[in-house]
Amino acid sequence: MHQDPAYVVLSSPTKMAASWIALEDIEAGSGELIYYEGSHRIEEFLFKGIYKHWDGEDIEMHHEYLKTLHTKCQQMNLALKKFQPKKGDVLIWAVDLVHGGSEITHPNPNVTRRSLVTHYCPYDVNPNYFRFISDNRVKVKFKEGCYYSSYHYKMSNSIPVNNIKMLFQLIKRIAGNATQSKKYSD
Length: 186
Ligand SMILES: O=C(O)CCC(=O)C(=O)O
Ligand SMILES: [Fe+2]
Prior knowledge:
Blueprint: E1 17-22, E2 33-36, H1 59-75, E3 80-83, E4 90-94, E5 99-101, E6 115-120, E7 140-143, E8 146-148, H2 164-180
The structure holds 2-oxoglutaric acid (AKG) and fe (ii) ion.
2-oxoglutaric acid is lined by residues 4, 18, 33, 99-101, 115, 117.
């Protein structure tokens, strides 16, 4: 389990919320999202005493970070919850919520749990990857005050997402791609 700022790096790390949108009914044992209720309030872990993100290198410190998340949540007696949504249900969490995928115990090893996971920040906050992936340095306008960017998918400023039907098509396209790509973090 993790907190998103360790891996989703922003110019202002605390200005973030996230959501898990179920694209199908999620079956028990399919590796559902789990989270410690109220864990967005645990004492902050700072890598090297400074950063909310992990540098991807110091394996020991990363291990220590993951371990302390459980310890802190257990010390505060926070309940470990499972999100078992129906298609279309959404879990929205505050930046520091401790969450992650659970073990797959379903008899069918090919069971899916298709979702759209999205991280949100204000327009004046930039994802860190803007600094080194120039192709993806794009904020596509959806409507007034709403923009989207993606680390994984090439975005074009010209995608004409201006109504709900088109947004739906975009989500379907992203979901289709997502099933073909590998899970990249836990
Ligand atoms: O779907 C999952 O298991 C977790 C995804 C997640 O935590 C994330 O993308 O931040
Ligand atoms: Fe996450």
